[in-house]
């Protein structure tokens, strides 16, 4: 995982008095959610008009719904069925996604069609980038509108003149999309609840790390990345997992006692908190006990328990797979660290596709209260879009954490460092080349996502693609504005 | 992965002359298959009569089909729709599995019902163990009938008096099911084709390892484990993957140059042959080239290429997930090896749930030419059955390879060794306790599978469960009879 949770730069603050033991831990299931629940599920702009206009240029593309008016490029506010929250009881929850969507409409979504579609995807890119047509203001709940929402000038300031200026500057030359400031009430409530969970439920960190935990701003991060979450509890699902992932990274891999030595054992045993052991009664008890034995395992176990209440079995399986990828990535990086080896650039990029934010954007449907069906998620074109998005977001982390990692003890691999070493470039030129690599991946992600949307115009696919794009944008927003953690190098 | 491909005990034989270069590598797609293709898809005994008898005792169990006669315990030969082979063109192939099965019939398949069902599962266990009713002789194509097919006496000889005696003795006291001798014509053809692939297509091993490769008997192994494969090419899908997995294990982890040092890097880069890198054009070329750079990567890449032609995207995703688990397991074991650390027994069992045969039985549907739908595969009860089966098969490997591993340099962890060390038992007592652990897992696997079959009597689920059970039985058969590789300790 990229390291949004590490770096104890200022970790000597005493514990806050607020850590009193009396707070109940069960508010997730209480009625508090109603205070910050959206009035209703967000209505989505119908993708079909835009899709039709594009699809007409795609050889072999599937027919679109007959009710969609032709020759209309701007998405309308015609609502499509959206998920109803609350799958906690195990019954229903999703509507359009599971079982209801005609997968056969995607049979023409092959590589050739995708490449053709890419060339005619400007309208679809607008769909992916965010709401811009009439009647789409409810698409990004919890955000104030900002103009322009898309079509970003590279290196521009995040907020318009009428918005409060965000802290931090974007990396010059970086291709990204600004987002509206996340809703303060949601951020406040998620921040309050996540601290209570971390402190009272799982004891994720000792008192002296409190300032660092606050500086992580994980509530703001997750609200920015999941604008369509129907309730605070949906946001909490993502937020707990993010904190847990960072507890593992910090305590096992990086700053807080982490080490490449023995990491394979630690990560596997922690992974059983996500992907449970099935063994004999005699040995199962010791395994169950082990899940309470350190902060990373307590956090994984509890966060997963909440997650599976909202996720379908296939969504949980998807998350476990992504986490096993993440752990493989940690272990490749650890092997290089142990040998003090700097890999080739392509090898680093391969490792970084695994040690990657991927587990975070791919739960966007669970957090949004719907499901991208497993058979659609598994399609190569969807897998490619997810991988490209994950890789772009992860390189954003490399770029923003560059100076922080330079200050850390030892050599911390990131893309600029590896390019400088392997391609004989100056630190500045290597950094600028890393920006180009990121931009290239972002452009490819958007083109492939647009092509996929054209080839497979199923509502859950379109919503999932928008969710991943929103995560990409929110992730950049968080990195740029987290001046507690990040500062840019002096290359310009 | 358990180590069915390692141990170069007799590896000095010169290369065979048969390694001539002229053989074409495209026979997989040729008409040769017809020679050994089954005359038609096997007809399955209807599980419903038995299910009904059991289901009546399950609180809240789902209704069964009305056409199923009640009070009939013995499975009949009423065929259910079965897959048509040949999904190579990407269109269709499966029939009952994808889209056609009523998943809702499984909504009552929860833990409580499963536990109740387990108590009334003797009939279902018979279904899982193998054909015994009238009209089921076509269930295990390529095998001669053997009696008794199920209801095995522990520690009995594998074959009846009328069958040719198999080589090797079973571990005394081990709970297992004997299987009929695999069809010699199929074994011969798979053996011929796999050697051609290994030698000519992917150069999986140097000439001096030929005897070891032959001693592996992978053709016999896979024919024994996949009795319902409709064609030789379906068997080849499993056989190539098995050889590739063992090439990685041998060359990266174990006997042939393997080491825990740097393993995390090697495994991740090899994993990209299964789960491809998505990066910029500049770096992609070097990655593509890397996939040809050593035997493990050549083998993974090619075997996966053949596999995805037969598998659905969800089946390929499942396999990738299982392989990432396997690689995590390797890395946990490597961490202990590097530190010369003997884990607790439960920790060893957790590692062994990952360093596990699991990727092999879970492709049983692809090899059988049908699909267990992703949403059913992901259900916790199915995941549990798969994990238990994988754990039992893997401990079979620990028991049969015990003396081989004792002869290897260094301490090779296996369950008897870990139990002896951690629980202060003699080698013999530790071995006998390991047998008990295996038997316990086998009994639990069968009980949970029977409960699942009762709770979710969907044809693809039942066939998948039988496929996993067949893999478990075939795996034992191969271990017992592979006297080239294995011999029992002198404890009885």
TrEMBL record, chains A, B:
Residues 1-25 have a biased composition (Low complexity). It is an enzyme of class 4 (lyase). Keywords: Lyase, Magnesium, Metal-binding. Coiled coil: none annotated. It comes from the Bacteria. It catalyses: (E)-2-methylgeranyl diphosphate + H2O = 2-methylisoborneol + diphosphate. Signal peptide: none annotated. This is Terpene synthase. It comes from Streptomyces reniochalinae. The lineage of its organism: Bacteria, Bacillati, Actinomycetota, Actinomycetes, Kitasatosporales.
